[in-house]
Amino acid sequence: NYDSQLERERLTKEFCSYATKVCQSLELQGYWCDFIDPASGLPIRNVNSNDSFTECDEDFERLHDAIYLEDLGCCRALKHCQWGFHIFTGLIVSDAPHQVI
User: Fold this and answer.
1) Which stretches within the chain are classed as H helix?
2) CA separation for the pair 29, 33 (Å, rounded)
3) The whole model's pTM is what?
4) Core-most of 1, 20, 23, 54, by most CB within 10 Å?
């Protein structure tokens, strides 16, 4: 519905702003970092890549035990074990160790 679409657009903007700051901070420390645009599935900082990674990609559910893909018949959607379908997914990738992040 319209309210859900507005919320998704707002969350996408907030995530992209946050992810940009995280990547800038990690890069200043000498690490590589990129993030996936939730709207397109494309990497933001590595513009030479045409590979996309969407939230319904089977690889996405392998990133966290609490998230899995559910087949709804007409499509697939990510579902969280606690919050159900009421989730927003954002992905930041880096070669920084978890202690730094």
Assistant:
1) 2-28
2) 11
3) 0.76
4) 23
